UniProtKB/TrEMBL annotation:
UniProt cross-references to Gene3D superfamilies, sorted A to Z: Transferase(Phosphotransferase) domain 1
Residue intervals of the Protein kinase domain: 1-258
PANTHER family: OVARIAN-SPECIFIC SERINE/THREONINE-PROTEIN KINASE LOK-RELATED, SERINE_THREONINE-PROTEIN KINASE CHK2
Protein source organism: Heterodera trifolii
Signal sequence, renumbered to the chain: none
InterPro entries (UniProt xref): Kinase-like_dom_sf, Prot_kinase_dom
Protein name per its UniProtKB record: Protein kinase domain-containing protein
Length: 293
């Protein structure tokens, strides 16, 4: 399988006299993180434009998940590389912490027993499982879900002509939103498995939990209002049951309109209902559920 969206290694060797290993990779222009936060204007002002970003992020994962779990999917690990002709390709980088998979089953799990160097604000629920930390490629899919929230929220700020969040503000906001989907709060560092579930979030009929997590809830609601189709996708990617999360191929099929998310069928948001009615008139509404395996 040709891998057009994974960073290429050009050469490798050992330096003298110190014997240090070096790897020479193809040179990138800048990272997705740089492009997002060094913005001069709104880049993705609709679901249609968001689909272009999602496509660029999902293609590398589709290629990589045939061989491994990345374990640290975040905007800094996507690099824009200039190819012949001057066009830019988004490529996945930094495979140091990756875990190999042995089959094509996207739900195949590998057990990681040791602490990993990762970006905790993008870390999925499996990592916090005290019973075993069984990780599959769906771990990366959760990380992508958090990335989409990050992109959408930044674009909403850009539309209001607000400056990008500082690094600390960004991490804090993503932590809070991630906690909301996880159902528990994490400690400040969030890097040690099994010992940092500080407080369970109790979703009750009262308003206390809403007041405690008001900022995160408002962010999610703003994303639903601005990007409903993307928000629907995020709801799937941040499913606590990893087997229900789409594969990278499922994500690509969803944004291309080739399938629907099985859990939600046709009736989740009015915008999709209207589109489904149009498709029914055209006789093309019988879409299969998007791929989760």
């Amino acid at each position: 399988m040709e891998r057009k969206h994974l960073i290429e290694m050009i050469d490798a060797g050992i330096t003298t006299p110190y014997g240090e290993r070096i790897i020479i990779m193809e040179m990138g222009v800048d990272s997705f993180h740089d492009r997002l936060y060094d913005r001069l204007a709104v880049q993705y002002d609709s679901d249609e434009h968001m689909a272009n970003a999602i496509r660029g992020l999902a293609r590398p994962l589709f290629e990589f998940h045939n061989i491994a779990i990345h374990m640290d999917v975040n905007p800094r690990n996507y690099l824009y590389v200039k190819k012949d002709g001057g066009h830019l390709v988004v490529k996945l980088i930094d495979f140091e912490g990756a875990k190999l998979v042995s089959t094509s089953n996207k739900n195949e799990c590998v057990v990681i027993g040791e602490e990993h160097a990762l970006s905790p604000e993008y870390t999925g629920p499996e990592y916090y499982d005290e019973q075993g930390q069984a990780i599959s490629t769906k771990f990366d899919i959760w990380s992508m879900g958090i990335m989409l929230i990050e992109i959408a929220f930044d674009q909403i700020r850009a539309e209001k002509r607000e400056t990008p969040l500082s690094e600390d503000e960004r991490k804090s906001r993503l932590f809070a939103i991630g906690n909301l989907f996880l159902g528990f709060t994490r400690n400040r560092l969030g890097t040690q498995p099994g010992i940092f579930k500080e407080t369970q979030i109790v979703y009750s009929a009262g308003t206390e939990w809403i007041e405690q997590h008001q900022s995160a809830i408002e962010t999610v609601l703003h994303i639903w209002m601005k990007y409903p189709r993307t928000a629907l996708l995020v709801t799937n990617l941040l499913n606590l049951e990893r087997k229900k999360r789409l594969t990278a191929q499922g994500i690509l099929n969803y944004i291309d309109g080739l399938c629907q998310i099985g859990e939600f069928k046709e009736k989740v948001i009015k915008k999709q209902q209207k589109e489904m009615k149009r498709l029914k008139r055209d006789g093309t509404a019988k879409l299969n559920a998007c791929e989760t395996e």
